Amino acid sequence: MINYKKLIQKAQNALKFSYSPYSNFKVGACVLTKSNNTYVGANIENASFGATICAERVAIDNAITSGDKDIVCIAIVSKSGDYTFPCGICRQVMAEFSSDMKVVVAKNQEDYKIYKLEELLPHSFLQKDIK
Fold this sequence. Notes:
Blueprint: H1 4-14, E1 27-33, E2 38-42, H2 55-65, E3 71-78, H3 88-97, E4 102-106, E5 112-116, H4 117-120
Parallel strand pairs: 3-4
Antiparallel strand pairs: 1-2, 1-3, 4-5
């Protein structure tokens, strides 16, 4: 059973590492893998906005570069006080590693929603589509 509150707490802790001087929109994420490891990320902005990377992709990249590719769940929080959903690019990156991943968007540890990635990105473009 997934401890969603623990993932949300780790995502909240990652907020302090956000580098967001342009938007001041701090986002934290925590990935859970099949091996029960967690990896966190925070958004990192850049003056060249296209070089900005979202917290979700930082967390996923941390898992992948640790050799842990079987992602089960990701929790996402922000300083906005509202549910923060992943952008389209993040959804596509998520689909690369798990089309049945659970996506948790949280206001806090008590107020959160859980979606299947397929609900947020129906008809995604996957490896099978390239072959």
